[in-house]
Amino acid sequence: MLKVVPGEAALVFKDGDSCSLLISDLHLGLEKEMAAKGFRIPPYSMKMMDKVKAIAESNRADRIIVLGDVKHSIGKVEDIDWSVIPWFFDTLLDLFGSADVVPGNHDGGIKSLLPSRVKLHPSAGVVLGAEERVGVAHGHSWPSKEVVTSGKIVMGHTHFTYELRDRFGGRTRESVWLFAKYDMMKLLRKAGHKDDSTGSGELIVMPPFNRLVGGHPINVPGGFDFGPVLSSGSVDISSSDMFLLDGTRV
Questions:
Q1: In a domain, 220, yes or no
Q2: Do residues 208 and 175 lie in contact, with contact meaning Cβ atoms separated by under 8 Å?
């Protein structure tokens, strides 16, 4: 059973006696970039950790899976990465029996930063569950054949938002969940996989767990053309559902 955690950018996946917490886009170390731009904020990683702990306790989760963009820096490992990421995952391993990472486009060099007990998966994703199968990936690259044919894909990467406007012209952007159907054969062929599986699957695009990162507005022209899966022509955007974190349908 896969369900959204109310009010949070997180999913809980229950399979038999196991309960996994799924989050995406931590962007640890973002504070350094914001400080360079003149914004001084308390260490946001601690606030995210408190949130993870509360969600884990309320759902009795014993495993955590991070769907990419663990770190904010791209390409190289920054000094802030060495101070934040090992601490963050050591703390996660105190809360959970196991921790997994599916790397994203920001995660170059991530293996050297993670404790040895953290399981690092290929960027093409991995399939979870035995009774119910769920494929998870970050979303910046083509998912594996196994992920596509699982019939349910969960990914992050997009940072989708919905732009709200008031009568005075003011604009705000709120994070959104996206739920859509995809054509299995079309996605397999676009991804270059030799498989004749047919039928439709469910795609769930998660909001970023780090609420300080920028957003990609979906209610502007070209808003959905982000990443290979959503740009592949295999996703039925016209009948998709979008929800704010508070559950409001947009």
A1: yes
A2: yes
